[in-house]
Structure formats: structure tokens, C-alpha cells
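Example 3.2
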Amino acid sequence: MAIIEQKMSPALAARVMSVSDLAGWGLSMVAYVRHIAVGEWAICSADGTRIGTAPDRLSAFAAIRQHDLEALSVH
């Protein structure tokens, strides 16, 4: 990891990192929101584990930030 930190841009480093390096690179600090049913949104950890639900998208993103996680947008 020392080479990555000293000589590579973050974008290039992400392409050459091992799975264990990537896991240690902050994935435990991010979450994403997914629509699961009418009036229900899932809050999921980076590995896809559902960690909560919310009645709307805005509330889901607010809950992520309230728990000091970084909200990611996924398509």
C-alpha cells in the first residue's frame, strides 16, 4: 500500500488494489440507498447488507449522514 500512497493517483490506485486493500480503504464508512417497495427505501452497507429502511429517499440519505457514513449514489 505504501507505493499506492506515494506514487499513484487515487483513480489509478483503485484499479490495481487487491480486494483486501479495497476493503481497508474505507468501504466500512459508506452506504447506499435502494428503492425496495412503494414507500420503502433500503439503506445498505457497501457489501449489500441491509442496515436499515426509510419511508423516503431523502430520509434514507439523512439517516446515512446522521450515522457518520458517506452516502453513495448507485445506478
